[in-house]
């Protein structure tokens, strides 16, 4: 048990003991929220013979906490160990440098290898499978470790902080809402408020367009402004920083006695890699040497800086990745530009984090603010495939992009015109000195992320490296030990699972402290790993840039063995030299897998995206009648992919006609729309920008009460199937055409189904959003055939 902890034993509903801790007195709490205290005044017949008792302010002092720190957690998305300058990378991150110089950095800190599983583990202090988050929610299945539902028995540390007087605010990415709970009807148990936050501003989902984000404030969907607060062209990361700064300042102005907890989780540096052009210009030409040279240069810097041990070996390039010098010149030109965009995206993100840190400093609060800056929720992303992408949706749908299109777009990469992603070779380079990338939980390229912590009031060290082995689940108990509270046995009436993390506080002021995390399993998409007492066993299931894994026996994987206490980068496989050691570790992996809901092992990727795997608001229904001006996420919309269906709009068209959207799903990067333009009924199908199909009526639609219909008849109910499309006005055929290929897996990651208008990006360049229908739209009816 950690220093200053207290053991509470139930003697009725609740009891508490206090003991000395880093932050003052410790409160051991059996039940949260606390039971109401009995009235200790006097009730007479009138107020004249009664004694009132003023209610207490809900601030930390009320619960015996002495000057607990403010807390800022920064979580960067898809950021590799060798990406940021603080850890030897080529992308300058002065804010991360500042936190490191003002405190300590950890060079053996680990995540889960994928975004929302890491985020669930961070907030709950439990392993990702323990809280139903073995994979992203959109790929969830009906097994306990993979539901996509964080259970009520695994409350977050934010909930505990809130019950102890903290003001909690979350800015950026929330990818922990089950896909089917993202609509206007919720339920909202696992939205930010249900996870312990008083305020949320950001987006709900895996990623979003940085220039046209799917913004949500608390539970309300909204449209992004045209500019940031300083008048500059809009960018989401800047907007998030603006809101975080305003919230912190307002909180301290109104209630200075309340500490804040700010969870700042921008969508950067996840795809799409979009950043203001002036930032890209700073990096033009700096990556022309390619990914092999980047690895070598970064490795040299890491050694010189002392980020990695002097005896570390640089792991070789996977055979399936091409050498930079083997690529044709036109490919190198495109890929170097893609990396310049990504470096700019990284630097811009750190700059915006710096504005948040500066604001805390300007308020005089930095000395007593615990800043935890985690550079990545997994390794860098290889989901851009071997050739990089103009549009990330092509990866999720297995659609090829021609090189000619990328060459044509080279000067506009990083702009609002593209949903771009760099090639897998750069992702591998960002994870220097390790093997592999995001998704690969078996190797540190997927799971080891740089982290810096500063808290001047409580951490004496400055700029020192800590090499204790830790995991993202260790953040929860670290924060609670600093604040001086215990994990409740019950929260909101629900018995709580034990916290599986261990506090890192023991290492803050003792660089030589013995590791307290001696065992940690890893698993993602069939990739398996187990760390124990300085050794690591690793089983690689498949390459991260493939949309699906080839068949294999998950119970008979080719395991590798590394003595990571001496082999920092997992460079020397000792499986043949020490078969018994490997055998013991594999047994331990399956023991841990059984303990933490990892079983059954599942290596499917896109196959798990099938909607039948999860609860659905639409399953079993064939008819949907929607009102005007409605927005729905894909997870709560009818699944129309390669299925025969009709979309019927009952409208009133005034004399002179009316243009506008009747129905859209998705936007400029993938989706389809049914609308009236220049008086003509139109259906547009956007196959991730690679192919587009437009069917238009020959004549203008009639006026008055009109029924407008689109009939989609698929060639087959299978991915990429073509379809015949017919347009009707008052049951009269007004247009016909073909969709030659259809979207197989996912229409959009962030845009919505819109009725009567279009939000986010337009489905094509024929109109500008919101393109609200100019007549009266009564209802839109969707029928599955």
Automatic annotation (TrEMBL):
Keywords: Calcium, Hydrolase, Metal-binding, Signal
Enzyme class: hydrolase
Matches recorded under CDD domains: PAS_like (cd16025)
Classification via PROSITE patterns: SULFATASE_1 (PS00523)
Single GO term (MF): metal ion binding
Superkingdom of origin: Bacteria
Sulfatase N-terminal domain sequence ranges: 69-485
Its EC number(s): 3.1.6.1
Signal peptide segment: 1-28
PANTHER family on file: ARYLSULFATASE FAMILY MEMBER (PTHR42693), BLL2667 PROTEIN (PTHR42693:SF43)
Family membership noted in the UniProt record: Belongs to the sulfatase family.
Record's protein name: Arylsulfatase
Lineage: Bacteria, Pseudomonadati, Planctomycetota, Planctomycetia, Pirellulales
